[in-house]
Amino acid sequence: MSTQSHNHEKKDVDVASMFLVALILFLSGALISLAMAGLMRFLTLKQQRREAAVPAPVESVTPFPQPRLQVQPGTDLQELRAAEDERLNSYGWINRRTGIAHIPIDRAMQMTLERGLPDVGGNQTPLQLMQARPQQNEMPKPGGDE
Q: How far is CA 132 from the centre of its chain?
C-alpha cells in the first residue's frame, strides 16, 4: 500500500455566487430587451406621426400625355425621303439678304470637279485658319427662305 496522500482542494465552488452571477446576467438581458422594445415602439410612433403630418400628394389636373407613336412608319419614312430628295435636287434660298442659296447636289458636285476645291488656307495651319476666319453671327436655317 502506498502511503502517498492525494492533495485536492478542500473547498467546493460557491453555489450562491454562481446563482447570483446567473441572475444578474438574466436580469441584464431582460432589461436590455425591454429597453430595445420601448425604443422601437417610440421610433415607430414618431415615424407614424411624421407620415401623418405630411399631406398626401395631390393628383394633377391634367394627366401626363401618352407617348406619340408613329402609326405608319413606312409612310412617314417615304415622306421624309421625298422631302430630302426635293431639297437635294432643287434650287432655293437659304438667306436671301446675304445671297446664300442652295443648288442641286449633282450641279454642286459637277462644279466642284470643274473648279476644284478652293484654296482657303494657303500655307496656314488649321489653327491659324480658324483664327483668321470671321465669326459667323447668323446660322443658316434649313429651308428658311427669306
A: 40
Domain extent, residue 109, equals 84-117
For residue 38, give the C-alpha cell: 420601448
Residue 45 in any domain: the answer is: yes
Q: 127 lies in a domain?
A: no
Q: How far apart are CA 120 and CA 136, in angstroms?
A: 16
**Could you count the other beta carbons within 10 Å of the beta carbon of residue 88?**
13
Closest CA to 92 of 80, 84, 100: 100
- Reported as a single tens digit per residue, the pLDDT across 81-137 is 999 999 999 999 989 998 889 999 999 999 989 988 877 767 777 777 777 766 554
- Total domains in the chain come to 2
HSE-up (13 A, CA, CB side) for residue 85: 6
- Whole-number Å distance between alpha carbons of 84 and 27: 87
Residues 6+ apart with CB under 8 A from 27: none
- pLDDT exceeds 80 at position 5: no
